[in-house]
Specification:
Layout lengths: L12 H5 L7 E2 L7 E9 L8 E6 L2 H4 L2 E5 L8 E2 H5 L4 E5 L15 E6 L8 E6 L2 H4 L2 E5 L8 E2 H5 L4 E5 L10 E6 L8 E6 L2 H4 L2 E5 L8 E2 H5 L4 E5 L10 E6 L8 E6 L2 H4 L2 E5 L8 E2 H5 L4 E5 L10 E6 L8 E6 L12 E5 L8 E2 H5 L10 E4 L8 E3 L5 E4 L6 E3 L6 E3 L6 E4 L1 H8 L10 E3 L6 E4 L5 E3 L8 E2 L3 E3 L7 E3 L2 H7 L5 E5 L5 E3 L5 E2 L8 E6 L2 E9 L3 E2 L1
Parallel strand pairs: 1-5, 6-10, 11-15, 16-20, 21-25, 26-28, 27-29, 28-30, 29-31, 30-32, 31-33, 32-35, 33-36, 34-37, 36-38, 37-39, 38-42, 39-43
Antiparallel strand pairs: 2-3, 3-4, 4-6, 7-8, 8-9, 9-11, 12-13, 13-14, 14-16, 17-18, 18-19, 19-21, 22-23, 23-24, 40-41, 41-42
Organism: Bathymodiolus thermophilus thioautotrophic gill symbiont
InterPro entries: FG-GAP, Hemolysn_Ca-bd, Int_alpha_beta-p, Integrin_alpha, Integrin_alpha_N
GO molecular function, one term: hydrolase activity
């Protein structure tokens, strides 16, 4: 585990193993192959620290295991034998009865699932592609605060999560699994499951919509348009679904998008397909995506490269408010050297024109726009970045910074520190808009620590119910004070979206300001801090709304 850092010094894993700059996680048994698949797990236990999930698909004589390691601040080495004993995390044991010839390979693919059931704790997904005559099965494990063992047989029975059953023998569903983000915009995180050998190896990927119950999901139902939708491969032997991932919001429409890899397409040149988020359950055909309907295709560079072997969201690399992508091509040749491999970063975009990786290699993927940049030169000091009415990118550093928008389609990246982002009526309008300006989509990212979104002006209305998910994130305090009477409107999904790390939002202001919370929140009987009333929801036990007692709650 390598801790984040601000410098560009090389990291040596020998240093990590000795407890400098991170910590090592040691496997449990010989030939377990722990680490074959690893992922952030989100905050599974709700302690405010991100957790990890590690797959060991050869453990228990190829039945497999997975380990959830709780987040921590020290650098002491972790032994997975301790995790299996309930110290510092918990183990997810295989589904003993479900392996084909004693082989299940659970943990061959593991991932955070996001918050599938909306309880405020992040969930997990574990793939076991050799179960059920290799039709495969994936298991969704709901987040929990204890470190008790999880048995996948219990998940299959509908306790603590639910199973996702493969469609046909030898499809190998669960070869790749991932959170899909919120594809359909219902406030629950969705899932994507790859089955790269389905349909004569053209492959299928299945998007399973988030749900609060623990009834098993059958991928045959998903293929029929119940509870999600199927993504059908383009050509025989392309093996769509060998790699699947959340793409983030690539086109800025407020719905999370998907990326699926078909690394064997076009004589193993490989292709990747970006599928835009959608609210219906109609099947998606990758031949349509390749034609520019509902997404766009990313064509590989050379035969044998296997581009799309690994695909992922890259976050917002260039700071334009659109999420970017990364595509791996492990067998690409470079300057006459065989199989060195390449990775390509593709910037988010709103059109559906095909991307050719030959153009990315030639540097044609970078487009300059007339955008003003407000940057934090003194990265570790407290700075004030003041914008104009133009469209601007704000990038702050490690200090307790103040970012002042002054209107326009602004993108705020506050970084670490206890930052304050000040927006006016024009900024509010742009946050509600789905229209790009100078290829920017207005967005606020508070970054780490405790960050405040502050309104500047009077008679302003910050209506979070009308702002797409992901447009405002990592905000812990909303300040309505301004220069007059201002209003905040939000629901439970809005709280969980903008304060996803803590699930706690504090609202401050003065007399005359109002907070519209509808009927989903209930005022707590006990006051936990002087001057504030706290509100909770039975639909998300970890969610807390703190409202200044000077404000009117409606």
């Amino acid at each position: 585990m390598v801790f984040g850092k601000v410098d560009t010094t090389a990291v040596n894993l020998s240093k990590i193993a000795s407890g400098t700059g991170g910590f090592v996680i040691n496997g449990e048994g010989n030939s377990d192959s722990s680490g074959i698949s690893v992922s952030s797990a989100g905050d599974v236990n709700g302690d405010g620290l991100g957790d990890l999930i590690i797959g060991a698909y050869k453990a228990n004589i190829l039945l497999g295991k997975s380990y959830v390691v709780f987040g921590r601040t020290d650098t002491t080495a972790i032994d997975l034998s301790d995790i299996a004993s309930g110290i510092g995390g918990f183990v997810i044991n295989n589904d003993i009865a479900e392996g084909e010839d004693g082989i299940a390979l659970s943990g061959a693919s593991v991932s955070s699932a996001g918050d599938v059931n909306g309880d405020g704790l992040d969930d997990l997904i574990v793939g076991a592609y050799r179960t059920q005559n290799s039709s495969g099965r994936s298991y969704v494990v709901f987040g929990k605060i204890d470190s008790n063992i999880v048995n996948l047989s219990t998940i299959r029975a509908g306790t603590g999560g639910f199973a996702i059953n493969g469609e046909n023998a030898d499809d190998e569903s669960g070869t790749s699994v991932s959170s899909a983000g919120d594809v359909n915009g219902d406030g629950l995180d969705d899932l994507i499951v790859g089955a790269d050998k389905a349909q004569d190896w053209s492959g299928r990927s299945y998007v399973v919509f988030g749900k609060v119950n623990m009834t098993a999901v059958n991928l045959s139902d998903i293929a029929s348009g119940t509870g999600g939708f199927v993504i059908n491969g383009e050509k025989s032997s392309d093996r769509n679904g060998s790699s699947v991932s959340l793409a983030g919001d690539v086109n800025g429409d407020g719905l999370d998008d998907l990326i699926v890899g078909s690394s064997y397409a076009d004589s193993s040149t490989g292709k990747s397909y970006v599928v835009f988020g959608k609210t219906n359950m109609t099947a998606v055909n990758l031949s349509d995506i390749a034609s520019g309907t509902g997404g766009f295709v990313i064509n590989g560079e050379n035969a044998g490269d296997k581009s799309g072997n690994s695909v992922s969201s890259a976050g917002d690399v260039n700071g334009d408010g659109l999420d970017d992508l990364i595509v791996g091509a492990p067998w690409a040749d470079i300057a006459g050297a065989d199989n060195l491999g390449k990775s390509y970063v593709i910037f988010g975009k709103t059109d559906t024109e095909a991307i050719n990786l030959t153009d990315i290699s030639a540097g044609k993927g970078i487009v300059a726009h007339a955008i003003n940049f407000q940057g934090d030169v003194n990265i570790d000091t407290d700075d004030t970045l003041t914008g104009t009415s133009a469209d601007e990118l704000f990038v702050a550093g490690l200090g307790n910074d103040i970012l002042i928008g002054n209107g326009g389609t602004d993108v705020f990246n506050a970084g670490k520190g206890n930052d304050t982002i000040i927006i006016n009526d024009d900024n509010l309008a742009k946050l509600s808009s789905k229209v790009l300006s100078n290829h920017l989509l207005a967005r606020v990212d508070g970054g780490g620590n405790t960050d405040t979104l502050k309104l500047a002006g009077a008679d302003l209305s910050l209506d979070l119910t009308q702002i797409d998910n992901g447009r405002i994130q990592d905000i812990e305090i909303i300040d309505l004070t301004g220069s007059g009477n201002n209003t905040l409107k939000l629901n439970l999904n809005d709280l969980l979206d903008i304060s996803s790390e803590t699930n706690v939002l504090k609202v401050i202001g003065d007399t005359g300001d109002k907070v519209d919370i509808g009927n989903i929140f209930t005022k707590d009987s006990q006051q936990t801090e002087s001057g504030y009333d706290t509100y909770s929801s039975a639909n998300a036990l970890t969610a807390k709304l703190w409202i200044d007692q000077d404000l009117e709650v409606i």
